[in-house]
Amino acid sequence: MKFSKVLIANRGEIAVRVMQTAKAMGYQTVAVYSNADRHARHVQEADEAVYIGASKVSESYLSITKIIDACKKTGADAVHPGYGFLSENTDFAQACIDNQITFIGPTASAIELMGSKRLSKIAMIEAGVPCVPGYEGDRQELEYLATQAEQIGFPLMVKASAGGGGRGMRLVQHLSGLVEALQTARSEAENAFGSGELILEKAVIAPRHVEIQVFGDTHGNYVYLFERDCSIQRRHQKVLEEAPAPNLPEQARADILEACVHACQLMQYRGAGTFEFLFEDGEFFFIEMNTRVQVEHPVTEMVTGVDIIEQQLRIAGGLGLELQQEDIKVQGHAIECRINAEDPTTFLPSPGKIESFYAPGGAGIRLDSHIYPEYSIPPYYDSMIAKLISHGKDRETSIARMRQALDEMILTGIKTNIPLHKDLILQDKSFCSQAMDIHYLEKHLLKQVEEKKAETA
Ligand code: ADP
Which of 17, 170, 186, 292 is catalytic? Predict the structure, then answer.
């Protein structure tokens, strides 16, 4: 084996999730933790744990020096970055290489390429992957961008090339709002991402978000693990995901899966990756590629039976993919509900102490989480505290099992978005009978507010 001790440069549910597989494969595991995470589950689960600093992410989970030092201190010879934090940071991947530590992910150059919405789009166009029409050139003067925008037409999306996590995006409805949108997008991008580079895209009016899971190894094997539908979003953030994507035309689906694998071959892509697309009227449009494990990876694991973390570790260790394309089949349907510590009506974070917690179970139910009774959710990090996943022979069964599991789950002491899943989305006839577009949840929430107002009037 190329490495024997894996440091997980992350926290929360994903740190626990990665550790479970790493331990089952016989690796030693190392956790890192901030001040706020002294009593966190990932620290208890790991074979060793290293304190890396204050609760603020810049002082701990985002500090490349501290993570590399923790590797040196414990003799960890590999790092799994999880998602978020340093998972798509080129400098971190390079620092690992420079210190003879295996980075469990793609090459630093692949991360860099895909971290730029502009350059990744150019690479995809060259690879024959369909993209949203727009401007992704290197001329960046605002006047030039304005002329390009007029050619593309409205509504239009202005995006920070280095943006991510649903931030750095602006919808421009009419020509009259263009100049101001470009100016603010530029300065916001400079402040938030350290680069003012912008791309322009035609706004796709009512698409679905469909993404393809892929893998490449160092032995020339490239496979797809089919698709996920992540259209249930609020403020461009995913709330509920499912696999497979309901009602995709078979030919369009087959073509896009092939196009993604072909692009991986051209790039000699290594590790797990996700191609994200907007899907409208039978057509796919590439928006970006993520070069890490996704939050929503469990729905793919449930329908394919493949442990995505295991394949990541195998590839990084030089063992190669265990899978041939013809062995990978989709069985049944899976849904994931992201459980956030937040107020279900205002969506404001609701950190604090969990009083009671009971995890649901039974056939086809999985819970990925790091919480336990009396655990205090710190206010410094993402509000997602659990992912509830259901699997069944078809979508209807998966929905029914999810409803039952949400009813069974007990989580008190903090506010959560469980009512949003239970009473709003999973009770809605439209959602239960068909695939919805990316605006569905926000429209549905608005409708509910209006209905309540009408009731009280
Ligand atoms: P980020 O990197 O910040 O996640 P993405 O480019 O992946 O940004 O887009 C996130 C979400 O924004 C998509 O899932 C979709 O809801 C919306 N979106 C992005 N590009 C467009 C577009 N051209 N037209 C309409 N909606 C878009």
Answer: 292
Tens-digit pLDDT profile for residues 283-318? 999 999 999 999 999 999 999 999 999 999 999 999
Checking if the pLDDT of 388 tops 80, the result is yes
Q: Is the CB of 155 under 6 A from ligand 1?
A: no
Task: Judge if the beta carbon of residue 160 lies within 6 A of ligand 1.
Answer: no
Which candidate, 147, 457, 164, 104, places its Cα nearest to that of 308?
104
Q: Is 38 marked active-site?
A: no
Please state, in angstroms and rounded to a whole number, the distance separating the CA atoms of residues 250 and 205.
23
Question: Which ligand 1 atom minimizes the distance to the CA of 285?
Answer: 23
- What CA–CA distance (Å, rounded) separates 247 from 240? 17
Q: State yes or no: pLDDT of 163 exceeds 80.
A: yes
The model's pTM: 0.96
Tell me which residue has its CA closest to atom 8 in ligand 1: 166
* Residue range 350-387, pLDDT digits in tens: 999 999 999 999 999 999 999 999 999 999 999 999 99
What is the structure's pLDDT at 1? 63
Ligand 1 neighbourhood includes 6 CB (under 6 angstroms):
no
451, with CB counted inside 10 A (0-12, 13-18, 19+), is exposed
Q: Using H for helix, E for strand and C for coil, what is the string for the chain? A: CCCCEEEECCCHHHHHHHHHHHHHCCCEEEEEEEHHHCCCHHHHHCCEEEEEECCCHHHCCCCHHHHHHHHHHHCCCEEECCCCCCCCCHHHHHHHHHCCCEECCCCHHHHHHHHCHHHHHHHHHHHCCCECCEECCCCCCHHHHHHHHHHHCCCEEEEECCCCCCCCEEEECCHHHHHHHHHHHHHHHHHHHCCCCEEEEECCCCCEEEEEEEEECCCCCEEEEEEEEEEEEECCEEEEEEECCCCCCHHHHHHHHHHHHHHHHHHCCCEEEEEEEEEECCEEEEEEEECCCCCCHHHHHHHHCCCHHHHHHHHHCCCCCCCCHHHCCCCCEEEEEEEECECCCCCCECCEECCEEECCCCCCEEEEECCCCCCEECCCCCCEEEEEEEEECCHHHHHHHHHHHHHHCEEECCCCCHHHHHHHHCCCHHHHHCCCCCCHHHHHHHHHHHHHHHHHC
